[in-house]
Amino acid sequence: MRVWTLDLHDPHWDEAAAARLLLPAERRRAGEGTPEVARRRVLLRSALRRVLGRLLGMAPQDVPLDVRAGRPVLSGGAAHLAVSSSSSGALGVVAVSRSGGLGIDVERLDEGFRLAAERDWLTEAEAGAIARRGPSEQPSLLLRCWTQKEAVLKAAGVGLWRPPRSVSTPLSARGRVGPWSVGPVPLPAPYVGSVAVDSRRSPRVRVARLAPAGCA
């Protein structure tokens, strides 16, 4: 599977041009948040459309991309591709796979300290395993656990409507959660990312950088 990263804080992004790649419904949804949230949504969705346009050989605005149960899905002749996206801080990621399901989540390492204070989302086994590790290791372990849960819930099409505690992660970088295989996304510090795919094989991720149009 392939993942593209984008720097959401790069001043070279043309937000107005990116918005023109979106459908009216996508622009309306993006506009429901704060200016920062709106910018993030516009850049992420336009990035996903750009990537899919290249893969499918069509204009980004013509990609048959829709939203079902809160997640992006493709229809028609493009339905063989599964897609997902996430963002945290300055980093955005979009993922594409030929598996029947896909979820991706990314978080900044400093989120691990917040998650440490909100442990009701952990299963008993997860909480016990993390508690036995040193304080310096716990933030990254918590983030890996959280991103795996979010990736699985996205892949299942339910998102955080289902309690994260209902997902029991493997407590390792790779493993299985029910029918889903989970694995890490190689990202620069301070980010931690995980993917979940509907496959018996552990996901192998290729990462590329997506620059603003006209930039290297």
From TrEMBL:
Protein name, per record: 4'-phosphopantetheinyl transferase
Lipoprotein keyword on record: no
Residue ranges occupied by any 4'-phosphopantetheinyl transferase domain in the UniProt entry: 101-176
Superkingdom of the source species: Bacteria
Source organism of the structure: Trujillonella endophytica
Coiled coil: none
Keywords recorded for this protein, A-Z: Transferase
A Pfam family that the UniProt record links to this protein: ACPS
PANTHER family: L-AMINOADIPATE-SEMIALDEHYDE DEHYDROGENASE-PHOSPHOPANTETHEINYL TRANSFERASE (PTHR12215:SF10), PHOSPHOPANTETHEINE TRANSFERASE (PTHR12215)
Similarity-based family: Belongs to the P-Pant transferase superfamily. Gsp/Sfp/HetI/AcpT family.
Transmembrane regions: none
GO biological process, one term: lysine biosynthetic process via aminoadipic acid
MF term (GO), any: magnesium ion binding
UniProt lineage: Bacteria, Bacillati, Actinomycetota, Actinomycetes, Geodermatophilales
GO CC terms: cytosol
